[in-house]
Design a protein that fits this description.
Length: 122
């Protein structure tokens, strides 16, 4: 079943994990919504400007690719997307945000999106 996934920290840089995740999510037939501060396109989807805090409906998963020190200004926005879960990829772990998400009924998962997809746990 397709899970609409918002990629926070999306980038057209092919060497970044956010790019690899976008590719693999697309390959596994999950709808992606790339959001970041870089402009461009990912797998025929425009990268939406994070600073504009775009509205996105029907979000299943937010997968994070921005480090903990850059996350606080986006807490409210990310939670406003009403995701079922937030995946804190390696290097994005943030206990403060994880606890806040869980307090709002959002599953906070310290995991790697790529591994979850490959192991059919996504």
């Amino acid at each position: 079943m397709s899970k609409k996934t918002v990629i926070i920290g999306a980038t057209p840089n092919q060497g970044r994990y956010a790019y690899l995740a976008a590719g693999m999510l697309t390959e596994y037939d999950h709808e992606i919504v790339p959001i970041g501060i870089k402009t461009g396109e990912l797998f025929n989807k425009p990268i939406l400007d994070l600073r504009a805090k775009p509205k996105v409906e029907g979000v299943d998963t937010v997968t994070l690719y921005i480090g903990p020190r850059h996350q606080p200004e986006w807490y409210d926005y990310i939670l406003s997307l009403k995701p079922k879960r937030i995946i804190f990829n390696p290097g994005t772990e943030n206990e403060e945000f994880e606890l806040r998400a869980e307090a709002e009924g959002v599953e906070a998962l310290q995991a790697c999106t790529l591994v979850l997809l490959r192991s059919h746990q996504f």
